[in-house]
Structure formats: C-alpha cells, structure tokens
Design a protein that fits this description.
Number of helices: 11
Shape: globular
Distance between the termini: 24 Å
Bound molecules: pyridoxal-5'-phosphate
Oligomer: single chain
Length: about 375
C-alpha cells in the first residue's frame, strides 16, 4: 500500500464541483487582485475565528510582517518567539529590522514554555509571538499575563492551527493579532499563496489594510510608504469554498490522530503527540519522536510511506541566523525535539486502513 505524506488531490476531488464555479465567478467579475471575493472571505474567516476583522494578505509571512509593522516594531526592537518553528516566524521579525529572541519550548507540547519567557525579556522587547506548533495552541493565558505585566504585545502565529482552540477560544482570537498561512498544505489551504491576520482592534486592522496596499486607504492617495501584500481574488474564492468544510476536515484529522494514538500506544522508544487539557488540537502535523530517526524514515520509505521532518534544524541554529552566535545547547528542549521528530502521513482523507498500515510499519521498524 502506498501512503503519501500529503494528498491534496484526494481533497480536491471531494470539492471539485464547488471550486470550478467559484473560480468562474472570479473570472466573470475580473476581480483578480483584492476585491469582493477577498472581502467576502475576510468576513467569513473573521467570524470563524471569533474576531472582528480579517485582513487578507499574500501569504503567512506577510501576515506576520504586516502585523508587526502595524504594531510599530522597528530597528532596535526585540521580539520573542520559539526556536522550533518554520523560519518565517523569525524572518518577519527580521524584515522589520528587529531582532528575534528565542524562548525554549515545553517538551510536552513543543510550544513556548511560559516558565522560560520572563528570562528572555529585555528592555528592548516589544512583544511575543507564540506559535501554535503542529495545530495545538500554546499555553496562552500565562504568556498573556506575563506580556500584560511587561506591556508587551502578543501576536499568535496560528499558521498551523486553523480552527484549533484554547479553553474554548479559537486560535488567532487571543492575541492582539493572529496570523495565518493558507499555504496549500495547511489545514485551510489556498490553491496558491495566501495568508491573513485576524484582529478585533479596529485601528490595527485599518493600519494593516493600508500597509498591504501601498500605504493607501484611498486609491492613489498614499499616507505611508507601504507594500503590495494583497491576497488575490482566486484565493479568496477558493478559501470561501474550503472554509465551509474546515470543521469536518479538522475532525477527520482528529479521528486519524486518535487511530494513530491507539495503534502506537506503548510502542517502546516512540513518543506520541500529547493533546493537553486546555487545547483542541487540529493535527496539522502528526509528529512522533524516535531516537533513530534516519533508520525509521528509510524503513517507512521502503514500504512506500511518505514522511517529513518539521523541522530538522531549529531556527537559532540555521545558517541564516548564524550571526546571532547561538550555539548548540542554547535551547535544549527545542534541539532535542528537532533531532527526534518524524512527521507521519496526516490529512483528513487518510483512511483507517492507511493509518493501520503506517502504524504497523512504525512498530516493526522500531523493534530490535
Ligand atoms: C508556523 C508558520 N509560520 C509562518 C509560516 C509562513 O507562511 P507562508 O509560507 O504562507 O508564508 C508557516 C508556513 O509554513 C508556518 O508553518
């Protein structure tokens, strides 16, 4: 049996009949850059997240960048995030001329460890970006409490957590802004590049709308030197169609995670993902941890099972950030995880038989 790591076609086949007319509508209206289909999706996505506004942008990196710029982050500032994330979280901070500072993670959730946050704060710190890694929300309450006391903003990187919840609150709605990527493989994925920031702060939403559109609120009148970070019309239309299915798809992922957990429970040498009490995990990624990762990946490969590693090198050890001078051992929890993570196939359309096949292959591969 062949089990791909991700099968976007399987999902496309279930919604083909809705996608084609949605794309045709964009063509008929020639509404290609921004426009009514983006505005409609923004309205629907804000409501989905329980926020007042959504601002559609070109991708998730733009979402973080626009949010930070609108919050006034600039040269000389520091913004704290975690080292085990996709590099874009740190890049957005760098784009503003600010410095990313890292806070190690909890080994139970792989998210920012609130107990280690205070130590990362300096007089230059402007804010904190917890990442809801793999689809489970960070422990936002203590992070927000520390940030509030020190007058820092909290921006959520919810790029992997569309529809995830923290104590019943939706990912993206808890910080002053929540940033999403709609990269095609995400839980809510566009058919191209797209992203959004959600916020309930009117002034911040206005500022981000202006910044994404060349610093103008009124066409050809520019109050700021802005950027072109608009979402395109086709993506707005596709995302509106797909948003109607996200809850069902997330349930599919949760079902598959439960099946993996049941089959792999108690396997010696394998650490399974843990869903903690406060969270509703949406399993963008189902990552296990094993010491002998290369051997496992190669044995699964022989059985035509696709795997991935999210992420093999934590951001503080990436060559791109070598000038920061951070060495191995700086963030031990994130480094241990990065050395052991293996992401197994995970998507809503994965069948129970496929999960069983993958689980049996993992069990036999790790047996001595
Ligand atoms: C945690 C995280 N942050 C930011 C991004 C950047 O999003 P994009 O690729 O849409 O720019 C991603 C996407 O992979 C991500 O996973």
């Amino acid at each position: 049996m062949k089990v791909p790591f991700l099968d976007l076609k399987a999902q496309y086949n279930t919604i083909k009949d809705e996608i084609a007319p949605a794309l045709q509508q964009v063509l008929d209206n020639t509404a290609f850059a921004g426009g009514p289909f983006v505005a409609q999706f923004e309205k629907e996505f804000a409501a989905f997240c329980g926020a007042k506004h959504a601002v559609g942008v070109g991708n998730g990196t733009d979402a973080l960048w626009m949010a930070l710029l609108a919050l006034g982050v600039g040269p000389g500032d520091e913004v704290i995030t975690q080292p085990d994330t996709f590099i874009a979280t740190a890049e957005a901070i760098s784009y503003c001329g600010a410095t990313p500072v890292f806070c190690d993670v909890e080994e139970k959730t792989y998210n920012m460890d609130p107990a280690k946050l205070e130590a990362a704060i300096t007089p230059k710190t402007k804010g904190v970006i917890p990442v809801h890694l793999f689809g489970q929300t960070a422990d936002i309450d203590p992070i927000t409490e520390i940030a509030r006391k020190r007058n820092l903003f909290v921006v959520e990187d919810a790029s992997q957590a569309h529809g995830a919840e923290y104590k019943g609150r939706k990912a993206g709605s808890m910080g002053v802004a929540g940033c999403f990527s709609f990269y095609p493989g995400k839980n809510l994925g566009a058919y191209g590049e797209a992203g959004a920031v959600v916020t309930s702060d009117d002034a911040l939403a206005d500022k981000m709308r202006m910044l994404r559109d060349h610093g103008s609120a009124k066409k050809y009148y520019h109050t700021h030197v802005g950027f072109n970070c608009r979402m395109d019309g086709f993506q707005g239309a596709v995302l509106s169609v797909k948003l109607k299915h996200i809850d069902t798809w997330n349930e599919g992922r949760r079902r598959n995670a439960r099946l993996y957990n049941e089959s792999l429970k108690g396997t010696p040498g394998v650490i399974l993902p843990q869903e903690v009490d406060y969270a509703k995990h949406v399993y963008h990624i189902y990552a296990i941890r094993v010491k002998e990762r290369d051997a496992l990946i190669s044995k699964l490969g022989e059985k035509e099972i696709g795997t991935n590693i999210h992420y093999p090198v934590p951001v503080h050890l990436q060559q791109a950030y070598s000038s920061m001078g951070l060495r191995e051992g700086s963030f031990p929890a994130a480094e241990r995880c990065a050395a052991e993570f293996v992401s197994l196939p995970m998507f809503p359309e994965l069948t129970a038989a496929q999960v069983k096949y993958v689980s049996e292959a993992v069990i036999s591969a790790v047996k001595r």
